[in-house]
């Protein structure tokens, strides 16, 4: 079995004070993808700079205090990459990937956007470039006999079942028709599989992000915007995929919850 987890930490220094380190110590995952790290490595608490037993690829953003992704692996990667060949986005702390035997794992933090602003324009430019990368990555990996899983905060709720109050959010970034159509293209044209939805086809959610405002978490009024999208061969071997929702509001160390998937891959890791 191979266990892969993904989590938007909403600032790794803050998360480390709230329980993230304890979660890392307890996780059974062989690979952990992080998003919204929002710090340079030299700003981390000492315990985070060299996590015992982990090989880390950190990809901070050129803009200080923004974005930032990472891929942590118990096994030393055969190859690492930051960015996906984009002149605009490779230094924005939004993408990193590693190669392990027979498997490429990537961590993604797609821009959140905001309707009617430059942030939404940025999101659309990112999506236009990124789907090309996803398509090429799948084709290249297939030629090499590799599987792929792209984990992270995609900042899009794909279906009505992916957010609690979908009717009130149809004109908001994250649930716009054009964003949802793009996500469909990732599945249908680029050929990836949403492993959580594959195993939970009729479920509302499971949500992975809840606003800190009001009682969103207590009422489970959330969004499912954190995904693991895998190539079909790997997705077919996914035996479990779920959101690690905290038991109580007080036990949360981020406004997101980890998404964890278990793959039957033998001893490749």
Automatic annotation (TrEMBL):
**Which cofactors does the annotated protein need, by name?**
Mg(2+)
Indicate the enzyme's highest-level EC class: hydrolase
Keywords from the UniProt entry: Hydrolase, Magnesium, Metal-binding
Coiled-coil positions are: none
PANTHER family given for it? EXODEOXYRIBONUCLEASE III (PTHR43250:SF2)
Q: Which NCBIfam families match?
A: exoDNase_III, xth
EC number(s) given by UniProt: 3.1.11.2
| Family the entry assigns | Belongs to the DNA repair enzymes AP/ExoA family.
Locate the Endonuclease/exonuclease/phosphatase domain: which residues? Answer: 6-256
Q: Does the keyword Magnesium apply?
A: yes
Q: What species is given as this protein's source?
A: Kitasatospora paracochleata
Q: What is this protein called?
A: Exodeoxyribonuclease-3
Keyword Metal-binding on entry: yes
Q: Which GO terms describe its molecular function?
A: double-stranded DNA 3'-5' DNA exonuclease activity
């Amino acid at each position: 079995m191979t266990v892969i987890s993904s989590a938007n930490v909403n600032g790794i220094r803050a998360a480390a004070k709230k329980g993230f380190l304890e979660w890392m110590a307890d996780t059974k995952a062989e690979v952990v993808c992080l998003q919204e790290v929002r710090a340079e490595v030299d700003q981390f608490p000492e315990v985070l700079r060299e996590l015992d037993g982990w090989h880390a690829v950190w990809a901070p953003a050129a803009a200080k205090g923004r974005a930032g992704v990472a891929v942590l692996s118990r096994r030393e990667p055969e190859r690492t990459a930051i960015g996906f060949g984009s002149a605009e986005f490779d230094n924005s702390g939004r993408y990193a990937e590693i190669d392990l035997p027979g498997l490429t794992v990537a961590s993604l933090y797609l821009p959140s956007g905001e309707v009617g602003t430059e942030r939404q324009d940025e999101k659309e430019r990112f999506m236009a470039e990124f789907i090309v990368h996803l398509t090429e990555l799948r084709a290249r990996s297939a030629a090499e006999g590799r599987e792929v899983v792209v984990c992270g905060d995609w900042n899009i709720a794909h279906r009505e079942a992916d957010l609690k109050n979908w009717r009130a959010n149809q004109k908001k970034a994250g649930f716009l028709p054009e964003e949802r159509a793009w996500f469909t293209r990732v599945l249908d044209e680029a050929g990836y599989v949403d492993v959580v939805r594959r195993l939970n086809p009729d479920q509302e959610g499971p949500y992975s992000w809840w606003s800190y405002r009001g009682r969103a978490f207590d009422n489970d009024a959330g969004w499912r915007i954190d995904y693991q999208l895998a190539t079909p061969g790997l997705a077919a071997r996914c035996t479990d995929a779920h959101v690690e929702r905290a038991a109580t509001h007080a036990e949360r160390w981020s406004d997101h919850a980890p998404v964890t998937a278990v793959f039957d891959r033998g001893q490749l890791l």
